[in-house]
Amino acid sequence: MAKYVLKFSKEGYFKYTSHLDLLRFFKRSFKRAGIKLDYSHGFNPHPKMGFAQPLSLGYSSIYELLEFETIQEILTDEIKDKLKPLMPEGLAILDCAEYKQEGKSLAALTEAAEYVIGIPLAREALGGKSCEELRDQFLSQEHIFVKKKQKKSKEFIDLDIKPKIMALNFSHGDDQLILVTTLDAGSESNLSPELLIHAVLLFLRAEVSRYDIEVMRKKLLFSNHFSI
Predict the structure, then answer these.
(1) Hey, how many other C-beta atoms are within 10 angstroms of the C-beta on 26?
(2) Which InterPro entries does the protein's record reference (predicted)?
């Protein structure tokens, strides 16, 4: 048995494909490529593969990671060469590496995620201030509260998202306010880009349709410093 990590991008119409449908797609693709996956044991065996961090529907990404195990060792270049021709428009195989570290999966080791967020706003909406000034004023708030809906109770609570923002920069171009940010994305602390978007729009007192805002995941960061 051997463990690997596949890096791929997810863009275009494929950003509206759920991670469960994407898992099924990759399962079929491995079979078509002649790559034999290792399976779990028990009454309902399933292939040993999973995403390091499932991507929210509607987000694009240039850094998606799929962990998988095969029943025998295969050259990583061979895996890439076999899978690349099977990818439809919107999916692209970028890299593949052996994962030799024992213990927890990348899903359990995820700490943070980097995003690029494009919000359609004319420069006039920034109130004559520079992007650096706005960023500094936004982050200088003692607390940054937003309403978050609880999964179990369905009730809304006030959540201070400031401690979960690891890095944030503002820039402007092509009539867009561009946020480049690193947010907590682990099992213990996690911040959805949606809450940051909401907080920034409240801060700017701006109204923008959510359907016009683009979110792209740029990278995932892990506690064991894995990178590909």
Answers:
(1) 22
(2) DUF2344 (IPR018768)
